[in-house]
Specification:
single chain, 417 residues, alpha/beta, Rossmann fold, Jelly Rolls, 2 domains, ten-stranded antiparallel sheet, 18 strands
Length: 417
C-alpha cells in the first residue's frame, strides 16, 4: 500500500469544487448551508453530531475522521459523535430508527448517508423515507442542521463520469432542494481521481498496481485510504460553508409529499401479543449480546402454532429482525386478507445480521396483523450456492433450523393497545 499524506489531497479536491474540471458537476450544493452548527461549536460547551447511515457510516472511517477534525478546530467545545450507522440497511429503516438512534440524543447536526444502500429503491419510496427523516428532525428542533452526504460504488462510475447523479442521489436531491439542505456527491471526487489516474477504484493488497485503491470490494472505502477521501471531501465542504450567508429556519415548511414517512415509529417486540411457543431470547444468549445495541428483546419461534398479533392504526407495518443461518419463513395475515409469505433467508445468511422488511401499504385506519412461523422447509443450500463455494458452506447442519427472529415492530402510525 502506498502511503499518502492526506492533507495533500485537499488541494486538488478544492480545485474541483471551484471548477477546476469543467467536465465535473460541482460536488457541493450548499443551498442554505449550515446556519447553526458553526455558531454552536464556537459558543456552546457541548455539541452533539449524529451520523445516520449504513455500513459506510458504521465503519470507523469518515465519521471518525470528520469528528476528529472538528475537535481539532473547536478544542473548547466537547463534541459528542453519535454512530447511527447500521450495515446493509437504507433510509427505509433509517426513518424508523430516528426516534431512538438519533432524536433521543438531541443532535445539533445530522449527517445522512444512504446513497449506496438505497441504490435499488424505487423513487417514491426513497423520497418518502428521506423526507420523513428531515421532518422528524425538524419537528423536534428546527435549529438542527442537516447535511446529505452521497457515497458511491463502482457501478456508479459510468453515471459519475458523465457528471450525472446516480439514481438514489437524484431522488435525495429533490428532497434536499425542497428543504434547502446542503448536499455533497462525493462520488464525483472519487470518479475524477480514478479518471485522472490518481487511484484505482477497486484493488487489493496482493495485486499491487503502484497506485492506491479506494475500495477492497467496489463499495466500502478502505479505512486507511478510501475513507480519508470521503473525510477530506466533507471537511473541504465544511470549510467552504463556514462563512456562507444562510437564512435562519423559523418553521417547518409544507411537505414535498403528504404521504412521506414522518409518522414512522418503532416499538419493542414485547408490545405484541405472543401466544403459543414464542419465546424471548435470554440476555445471556449470544444473539442477544451481539444485537443488544439494537434490540431490548428478541422474540423467536419456529412452529406454526405460535401466533403473534398486533393491532395498529396507520398505513403500514413491518419488522426490524434478524437474518442468518437459522432464520426461516413466516406467514402473515392482515385484516383477514390473503396470507402473505415472507422468507427471511438469503445468499448472505452464512452469518447473522440485523435487517428489516415492510408489508404493503394499506388504507389509513385500524388494522390487525396475525403472524405465524411457516414450517415449509427452505432449500437454504441452494440459495447459498449462488454466492458461496461448497467449502464455505460445508457445515450444513447449522442451516437445519428455521426460526423467526423479531426485534422491533415498525409502524407507519401507532400501535393500538
Amino acid at each position: 500500500m502506498i502511503k499518502i499524506k492526506f492533507s495533500h489531497l485537499l488541494l486538488p479536491l478544492i480545485g474541483i469544487w471551484l471548477g477546476g474540471n469543467a467536465q465535473t458537476v460541482q460536488p457541493v450544493q450548499p443551498r442554505n448551508a449550515l446556519p447553526n452548527i458553526f455558531k454552536k461549536l464556537q459558543t456552546q460547551n457541548d455539541v452533539t453530531i449524529a451520523f445516520l447511515g449504513g455500513s459506510i457510516t458504521n465503519h470507523n472511517g469518515y465519521r471518525v475522521y470528520v469528528t476528529d477534525w472538528l475537535k481539532d478546530q473547536y478544542p473548547k467545545c466537547h463534541i459528542n459523535s453519535i454512530n447511527a450507522g447500521v450495515g446493509g440497511t437504507g433510509s427505509g429503516l433509517g426513518v424508523f430508527r430516528m426516534d431512538e438512534d438519533v432524536l433521543s440524543k438531541k443532535p445539533d447536526m445530522v449527517f445522512v448517508e444512504f446513497a449506496v444502500n438505497d441504490g435499488g429503491v424505487d423513487s417514491l419510496t426513497l423520497q418518502h423515507s428521506m423526507e420523513g427523516i428531515v421532518r422528524k428532525i425538524w419537528k423536534q428542533n428546527i435549529n438542527t442542521d442537516i447535511y446529505f452526504v452521497y457515497t458511491c460504488q463502482i457501478t456508479n462510475l459510468n453515471d459519475l463520469n458523465k457528471g450525472k447523479y446516480p439514481h438514489s442521489a437524484m431522488v435525495m436531491e429533490k428532497v434536499a432542494e425542497h428543504y434547502k439542505i446542503p448536499s455533497i456527491e462525493m462520488g464525483f471526487v472519487v470518479a475524477n481521481m480514478v479518471a485522472a489516474g490518481k487511484m484505482d477504484f477497486k484493488g487489493s493488497k496482493t495485486a499491487n498496481t503502484g497506485k492506491p485503491y479506494f475500495s477492497d470490494d467496489g463499495t466500502h472505502p478502505t479505512i486507511e485510504f478510501g475513507h480519508h477521501i470521503y473525510a477530506d471531501t466533507i471537511i473541504g465542504s465544511l470549510k467552504q460553508m463556514v462563512g456562507m450567508p444562510s437564512q435562519q429556519r423559523k418553521s417547518l415548511i409544507p411537505p414535498l409529499d403528504e404521504q412521506n414517512n414522518e409518522d414512522a415509529h418503532n416499538y419493542p417486540i414485547t408490545d405484541a401479543t405472543l401466544e403459543g411457543n414464542w419465546k424471548i431470547l435470554p440476555t445471556t444468549d449470544q444473539l442477544s449480546k451481539q444485537f443488544a445495541d439494537k434490540f431490548q428483546s428478541i422474540a423467536f419461534a419456529s412452529d406454526s402454532s405460535s401466533k403473534l398479533t398486533i393491532k395498529f392504526k396507520g398505513t403500514q407495518i413491518g419488522f426490524y429482525d434478524l437474518l442468518g443461518p437459522t432464520s426461516g419463513r413466516m406467514k402473515a395475515v392482515i385484516d383477514d386478507g390473503k396470507p402473505i409469505l415472507v422468507t427471511r433467508f438469503d445468499t448472505y445468511c452464512v452469518y447473522t445480521r440485523a435487517n428489516n422488511f415492510m408489508f404493503p401499504v394499506l388504507k389509513n385506519g385500524v388494522h390487525t396483523l396475525v403472524l405465524t412461523p411457516d414450517e415449509t422447509k427452505i432449500d437454504k443450500l441452494k440459495i447459498l450456492k449462488s454466492r458461496h463455494t461448497d467449502a464455505e458452506i460445508a457445515d450444513t447442519a447449522k442451516y437445519d433450523t428455521q426460526n423467526v427472529y423479531l426485534g422491533k415492530i415498525l409502524v407507519m402510525g401507532e400501535l393500538v393497545k
